[in-house]
Amino acid sequence: MCMNFSSKLLENAVNEFGKLPGVGQKTALRLVLHLLKQTKEETFSFTNSIDQMKEHIKHCKVCFNISDLEICEICASPQRDRSIICVVEDTRDVMAIENTEQFKGLYHVLGGLISPMDGIGPADLTIESLVQRLDGADVNEVIIALSATMEGDTTIFYLYRKLKDFPIHISTIARGIAFGGELEYVDELTLGRSIMTRVPYEHKIG
Amino acid sequence: MCMNFSSKLLENAVNEFGKLPGVGQKTALRLVLHLLKQTKEETFSFTNSIDQMKEHIKHCKVCFNISDLEICEICASPQRDRSIICVVEDTRDVMAIENTEQFKGLYHVLGGLISPMDGIGPADLTIESLVQRLDGADVNEVIIALSATMEGDTTIFYLYRKLKDFPIHISTIARGIAFGGELEYVDELTLGRSIMTRVPYEHKIG
């Protein structure tokens, strides 16, 4: 869409907003006009929060999760179980698993998934650091908690080959029917697998 | 939704993004993580464009449209017809009308619509400036081009009462069936009005 901007400053801001994922030109213009209507303090608080984050945010030296400190709160906590590491794609997955309150071990954030289509190979992820982290450490189990997509499966397969010689238990999170999911609407692959990987009734949660 | 942020800096940025209209917490997190993956220069270019805009943008002293200069390009142009003024809600409407290339007059940007529900009264808009602008100026016609909503209609009614004593033609943009619109899907009010305000065939455009 061609837009006739009455101001170069406005146009620049709209173009910058339009670079964000899922934000088109019309949405960008709406957001920029919203910021224009705010007070200077409110808009400065918006841009400042981004600048501050970009300037000062760190990645934990142990697990590579986003952190304000060199070592993140989870890795530094004496209450976490150091014998179990959960491998995830990014910080959103850490947040999602922390929300469940079902996991008390440590994490390892890969920073992405292997995706040849997007030019992301194993070297772009923190896989080598995971191998070094396991070397000599007192870890019993690695849980691989990645998305059930082609990229996720590729990454799981690569990780498994890298880790299989360590004296540790390697597991992946269970796949099956979601709680509240109705059987007739579940896709065939998931339903078939959930029958093959059925569990004894006494193990049932909930 | 409760989010367990691993970083206060990240949380601040997500909260600031979440204040934008139509941006929820999950979208805010996605956008912030996108900015985190960019280079420092790219992110700085984003925040700088907003800061620069907020610092230096002006409203044209004549028509109140957003502008980089004291007097906007349209008001300053010798090629525009100064005898006709089109009254619009905001800069987006100016852009939309400019895109049609059907209007060669000047604009007057109200900066909103009268909306008692949102606490916006006539004094919050640039109506008084429009009255002063018409006073003594060589203007033949004012076209009121506002949205066909309750707030738009209220504002048109108020404007009409303010302007009716001036020796000028007051018109509003035509309402009717959009080009490409199929008759059976048009709402009753629009269809009824479009029959009442029918035009002779020779006036038909296109």
UniProtKB/TrEMBL annotation, chains A, B:
The keyword DNA repair applies. CDD domains: TOPRIM_recR. GO terms for biological process: DNA recombination; DNA repair. It comes from the Bacteria. Residues 83-178 form the Toprim domain. A zinc finger (C4-type) spans 60-75. Keywords: DNA damage, DNA recombination, DNA repair, Metal-binding, Zinc, Zinc-finger. Belongs to the RecR family. This is Recombination protein RecR. It comes from Rhinopithecimicrobium faecis. The gene is recR.
